[in-house]
Amino acid sequence: MTGFIIGGIGTCLGGLLSIFIRNPSDKVVSCLLSFSAGIMLSIISFDLLPKSYEVSGFFIVTLGLCSGLLIVFFAEEIIPFKKINKYAGRKQDFFKMGIIIMVSLSLHNFPEGVALGSSYVYSRSIGIKMGVLIAAHNIPEGMTIGVPLIMAGVSPLYILLLTLLTGLPTAFGAVLGEVLGHISEYFIGFCLSAAASSMLYVTVSKLIPEADILHKGRIKSVFLLIGFICGCYLSFAS
């Protein structure tokens, strides 16, 4: 339950912040998508992949990277986006983007939960500190889910629910980490690298191209850098 609260509160706060964006211009949306892309790129580069290589090695990381991409492709196939008549045209593209980001972040949140549960067993104070860092870490991630869904016209209540549910893998991971004390480092490395490739896919093929279509100016590149720097801070702080 604690893992769900910690995982869900951060992403839910991020989703709540995105709800306050009302009828944004194409330029504003482009900047927000670029900011989200910068955060995700930095988390991939300085958080997920380094930790994955550290605990599991090259072979497991490569296996995880390939698996993460296949998971996203599978999610795109099984989720009937085209049958959801409520979202058509550009709105459907944004809706699809938000759901795929949600799937990617869920992959990322599970090993975070395992680390949280394991550290709580080792030391309650360390577990609490890690929980606070994870919650802060998840706020901008919640925004990356919320912004595309806002542009798709999804209701605020539904956005809050989806961002809250993204915290469920953290809860499952925390329970396993606390009960077992630790889980195979190879499994953790696999999950981290799978999350990295799925997040890289959605960043490179969805967020950045869409931001470029919406606005051609240089300001979006500035927000990409700002997001990257913010992500770096969150990665090194945790």
Write the layout of secondary structure elements.
Layout: H1 2-19, H2 26-56, H3 58-78, H4 90-122, H5 124-152, H6 156-165, H7 168-180, H8 185-214, H9 219-237
Descriptive notes:
This protein has 238 residues and is mainly alpha-helical. Helices cover 86% and strands 0% of the residues. The protein has helices at residues 2-19, 26-56, 58-78, 90-122, 124-152, 156-165, 168-180, 185-214, 219-237. Helix 4 runs parallel beside helix 7.
Number of helices: 9
Overall pLDDT confidence = 78
Q: Main beta sheet, described?
A: none
Proportion of helical residues: over 70%
Encode the helix/strand succession as letters. Answer: HHHHHHHHH
Give the structural class. mainly alpha
Which of globular, elongated, flat, extended, rod-shaped describes the shape? globular
Structure summary, number of beta strands: 0
Rg, nearest Å: 17 Å
Question: For this entry, what is the oligomeric state of its chains?
Answer: single chain
The unreliable regions are none
Please report which band the strand proportion falls in: under 5%, 5-15%, 15-25%, 25-35%, 35-45% or over 45%.
under 5%
N-C termini distance: 22 Å
In short:
It contains nine helices and no strands. It has helices at residues 2-19, 26-56, 58-78, 90-122, 124-152, 156-165, 168-180, 185-214, 219-237.
Supply database-style keywords.
single chain; 238 residues; mainly alpha; 9 helices; 0% strand; globular
